[in-house]
Amino acid sequence: MSNVGEQSTTKEKSIVSKGVDAVIDLLSSVFLPIINLMVSAGILKGIVVLLTVTKVVSEGSTTYDILTAMSDAFFYFIPIFLAFTSAKKFKVEPFTAVVIAAILLHPSMSEVMKLGSDITFFNIPIKAVSYSASVIPILLAVYFTKYVEKVCKKIIPETFVGMLTPPVCIIVVVPLTLLIFGPIGLFIGGYLAKGYELVYGFTPLVAGLLLGAVQQIMVIFGLHWALFPIVLNNIAVSGTDTLIPLFGGAIFAQGGAALAVALKAKNKKFKSVAISASLTTLLGITEPALFSVNIPLKVPMVCACIAGGIGSSIAGAFHVQATAFALPALTTLPVFMSNNFISFLISIGTGFVLAFVLTSIARIPKLGEVENGEEFL
User: Fold this and answer.
1) Tens digit of pLDDT for each residue in 244-279?
2) Where are the domains of the chain?
């Protein structure tokens, strides 16, 4: 009997594991191709905030409006980008998916959604949903489009399938999105935000401590992609986010650890790699530090996780907020100016300095290989 129970438990774990893997694979597939654009948009938003705070540009001016369009356009139209990347993932005709997303963002659709409870489609009530900056509705819409296309290819003569499949998909999927997928996305997004707020509200310091300690471990396995929709949803719902500031201590801690390794290493090639990796973390990019320096040496990674947790706990304790999606970096600092900016600076500074100190005083066994002149990489 025990063997049967163990097999059942193992099977259940396998199903759960596969489900988690599938979700992470989906999120990484749809976000990875546009991650550089996300970072760039965050940097642009930071520049606009900085120019506004320093009174170089005044709110309400045409210059401000143009700069705002430059910095906000990507996130406003992110359903279009996600339509394209998810279409490739689901093997859907990309331009059909893009048109569906464009319809949801059309000015006429936006005006209709402002009506609130008075929206109908052929006398069928429709829930008001804002599709700009949304993630879940378009992913559901493109996924369903996959099956509409399959049906079209079966019943439409081959001569006309290329011409008739896109309009059929639009006619079927857009109303379904308005009636079902949009409200589902609104429901899921609302509960994601409420769930995060519940955890964060219970103890933001511990939330920062835990996330700061494990955020870069999540990067190793691609689990961090699951956090991006929550960040985007928080900003879309409330205009601010308290989750992404908790990345700061973890990101900068990787740079501090890599810099300490660079100063301790004698091998010139490895020293150069470590210095370069440390500098890239200041731009919000940790992969070089992770995979070239800290993970191979193990000890710096442990030091960075400890320092990242302590640094991020400060951002949590003081309720640091971001006004746009932007990975914490020197180039995106203005995005975090809305609430307790000094605390954010202390948070990332603590992560960097503490990781540097801990790594400097720690004994790193593998570093001896480098010091003896052996190639580590």
Assistant:
1) 999 999 999 999 999 999 999 888 888 888 998 899
2) 20-201, 203-371
User: Of residues 153 and 188, which shows the higher confidence score?
Assistant: 153
Give pairs for 174-179: CB < 8 Å, separation 24+: 174/100, 174/103, 174/104, 174/141, 175/121, 176/141, 176/144, 177/100, 177/104, 177/137, 177/140, 177/141, 178/121, 178/126, 178/129, 179/121, 179/124, 179/126
pLDDT one-digit tens code per residue, 99-120: 999 999 999 999 999 887 778 9
Percent of the chain with pLDDT over 90: 49
Please give the Cα distance from 297 to 337 (Å, whole number).
35
Question: In Å, how far are 60, 92, 335 from 66, measured between CA atoms?
Answer: 10, 34, 18
Cα separations in angstroms, 354 against 102, 259, 260, 349: 47, 12, 10, 8
| Residue/partner pairs of 158-161 with CB below 8 Å, 24 or more apart | none
Of the segments 39-48, 132-141, 310-319, 357-366, which one has the largest average pLDDT value?
310-319
Spatial separation of the C-alpha atoms in residues 164 and 160, rounded to whole Å: 6
Neighbours of 370 (CB within 10 A): 23
Number of helices (H), then strands (E), belonging to the chain: the values are: 18, 2
Spatial contact of 309 and 210, defined as CB atoms under 8 Å apart: yes
Entry pTM: 0.71
Is the distance from CB of 82 to CB of 138 less than 8 angstroms?
yes
